[in-house]
Amino acid sequence: MKPSRRFKGNAYHKFLKRGELLALEQELDDPNIPEEDKKKLARGIDEVGRTPLAVLAGVAQTHTNVLMSVAVNLVCHNLYALNTSDNHGDTPLDTGRKNFAIGNIIELLSLTPDAGHAMGWPGLCCYFVPPLHYRNSMIEWIRSRSYADCHKFITNNDDELVREVLKYRDSDPLREVACYSKKSSSSLVFLALRMIHRYPLSLTDTNFQGHTALMHAAHPQFNACKEIRKLLTLKPSVVSSTPFSALLFQFLPSKHHEIYGPYNTVCQFIKHMKYDKAELVEIEAVLKPTRKCDVCSSLPTKPCARCKRAFYCSPSCQKLAWKKHKKTCKAPTTPPATASSLRTLQKGIALLNMCIQHPGAGDHPASLVLDFLEIQFS
User: Fold this and answer.
1) 100 and 173 share a domain?
2) Where in the sequence is the domain holding 146, given as residue range(s)?
3) pLDDT in tens, 334-344
């Protein structure tokens, strides 16, 4: 494949000098353009001997994810541009410093070619452009139906990063859901709801072709399931003003309806525990609480054989307490906790402990809460 006219000469320089960073990012990421052509253009120099990376270093005064994406791409396509000097003897790092480039660009340009090669595209992208790195990861997970990984990312990261990922390139992740959702599942619908709840404007964002997620979902080529198409007809204003529990009730299958009450209760409890700085007691303390003698407060103790609620360290203490205790001593009306119920309690407490440690726990739905409740109600 021969490069088109627009890819001859100093095409990348022209993009940068005109400030067309988004267009350049799309060219650098276009899989239809051979890598050799991209490397050739990244190695090109202008009339004063500057590589595209050096030109970018001179105009990098404001941080954007697109700027960092282009910078990392240019480095990966020409690592030796990091040490290339122009006609004035300035490297891209020198140019960046002279033009007060942002700190992230200065840090990137401070790398040696060997360090850049060792980090590679994945390492450089993850470090310098996290939204792009996780956007790419989410797209891979969505296409492979690895929804649990998407849920884990949304649950484990702060709101700002999640929103940056969800709105990257005009809300690419939601359009990927629309394109890869022919087969419906509760996990898929729940994921789409979480994505829309975190960034409602993704419903109306359009790509460079003017297509929304709903337009992709309705296209015969993708033919998204009816649940996803219905969900994508929502308006951002409706999503912003509707409690997430109501959205769950509306869009998840009816078999899940009985868990919404417990789900909301658990999420509210998590929020209460997190922001009141309270701590759950240790699981062992709940399942095996420390008992003291009701008479002398000594250890060890044994429960009353009849009611199982009073504890004594010896027969003598039990005799001393019997006159008063016999008035309330009754056999329990409910059966003792079974091993199965204790295991469920243990899992529930472990779940709450885990949720409290997550950033934003209680503020937004956590898939592990829903997963746990689904198991208990199944």
Assistant:
1) no
2) 130-252
3) 555 555 655 66
